Amino acid sequence: MSVSATTAAAATAAAGGKEKESSSDAPTSGGKEAAAIDEIDENKDMVQSAEIVGSKKARGNATEKIHIDYIVHVVTSIPGVHWNIKRRYNQFADLHTALKKVVTTEKLLPTLPPKMYGLASPTSPESIEKRKLDLNVYLGALIKNQLVIKSDPFGAFLVGNFVDTLGLLKTYAQEKIALTKSLATAEEQRLATEQQRLKAVAYFESELKREKDRADRFEADLLKTKAELDALRKENEARLAANAQLQVIYQSTTKSTNETKKKNSLTLPIAHCVVCLCWYLG
C-alpha cells in the first residue's frame, strides 16, 4: 500500500476499535483550508514532504539513557493537512532495514547517516545538528523514490498510530464542514451584495436616462429659441432696411418741398407786381 492507502487503512482499523502503540505525537490539522476527501486521487501519493524541524532530548523511563527525539513535520497532498511525529535514530535505522526488503537494488536507496560522528557524543549539540541535517537529506531522497513512497514501512513510519490517523481525518472532515458552511455564507453574502449592486446599477441607469431626456428637451428648446431669435433678427433687419428707405424718401421729399418753397418765394412778388400793373393800366 502507498502512504495514502496506509492512512485510509488506519482510519478503518481505528473505527473497528483496534489500537497500535507508537512513539508519534498525535497528528493534527494545522491549516484552515480543506478539500473533499472523495476528490483525492487515489493514485496520488498522500505525503508530499517530510522534514525534521526540531529535536529534543528525552528519556523513556528512569533507567533508560537519554536519547534524541527528532520532530518530523509531514505535509500531505490534502490542503491544510499536516502533522508532526517524533522519531528516534533507531527508528530511522529500522526503517532503512525494512526498506532494503522493498528496494532490492541497494544503490537506489540513499545512505543512512551514521549514529555517531567520530568520538563525539551522539547527544552533543554538534552531533545532533549534523545528524538532523543528514537525516533531512536522507528523508528528501526517500520522498523522491516511488518504490519507497508507496511502501508499507515508509507509510507506517510517517503516519503514526491508527487512532491518531483517525483523529487526523476526523479533524480534517470537521474543517471541511466548517469551510463548506463558511463558503456557503460567503456565497450568500456575495449574492446579496450582487443584488444590491444590480439595484444600484438599475437606479443609476434610470437616473441617467432621466437626465438624458432632460438634456434632449433642453437641446430641443435651445434649438427652438435659436430659430426664433434668427427670425427676429431677420425681421429686425427688414425693418431697419425699410426705415432706411423711408429716411431716403423723407430726405428727398424735404428737399423737394424746400425747393418749391424757394420758387414760390420768388414767384409771388412778381405776380403781385403784374396784378398791380394791370390795375394801373386798366
List the helices and strands and how they pair.
Elements: H1 3-15, E1 47-58, E2 67-76, E3 82-87, H2 89-102, H3 125-143, H4 146-149, H5 152-159, H6 162-281
Antiparallel strand pairs: 1-2, 2-3
Helix pairs in contact: 1-5, 1-6
Strand content: 5-15%
Uncertain runs are 5-44
Mean pLDDT: 78
Give the % helix: 55-70%
What count of helical segments does DSSP give?
6
> What about the largest sheet?
3 strands, antiparallel
Spatial gap, N to C terminus: 173 Å
CATH topology of the domain at 3-184: PX Domain
Q: Could you say what the CATH architecture of the domain at 3-184 is?
A: 2-Layer Sandwich
Strand order of the largest sheet: 1-2-3
CATH top level of the domain at 3-184 is: Alpha Beta
What does it look like?
The structure is a single chain. The chain is mainly alpha-helical and 282 residues long. The protein has a domain at 3-184: 2-Layer Sandwich (PX Domain), CATH 3.30.1520.10. It contains six helices and three strands, in the order H-E-E-E-H-H-H-H-H. The chain has a three-stranded antiparallel sheet. Strand 2 (67-76) and strand 3 (82-87) form a beta hairpin.
In short:
The chain is mostly helical and 282 residues long. It is built from six helices and three strands, in the order αβββααααα.
Which terms would index this structure?
282 residues; mainly alpha; PX Domain; three-stranded antiparallel sheet; 6 helices; 63% helix; 10% strand
